[in-house]
Amino acid sequence: MTIMSKNNIAFLRRRRNLTQIRLSEMIDLPVSTLNRIESGETAGFEKHRLKLAVALACAPEELDAEHLDLPTFPVTGTVKFKTYVKDVDASEPFGVDV
Prior knowledge:
The protein has 98 residues and is of the alpha+beta class. It is 35% helix and 16% strand. The strands form two sheets. A two-stranded antiparallel sheet has the order 1-4. A two-stranded antiparallel sheet has the order 2-3.
């Protein structure tokens, strides 16, 4: 087992609203292998890099980039998060990933 540094695959997959099952179907890869790749526990990452990048609509180097330049836009009003609701004053908007 080869341990790889942290990657962005799970983040990019969730951002596109994909499950591991759906992504694995898209790239013809067993779910268990995708799970290991996301966890950084496989040396097979490199041979699947291009297929993952295409399915996740990103550049191949973004899959394991240290910093992603993600677009954000200011948000005001009531924002519903997974675990709470927050009222955001127009004078103090905050950025949200799109």
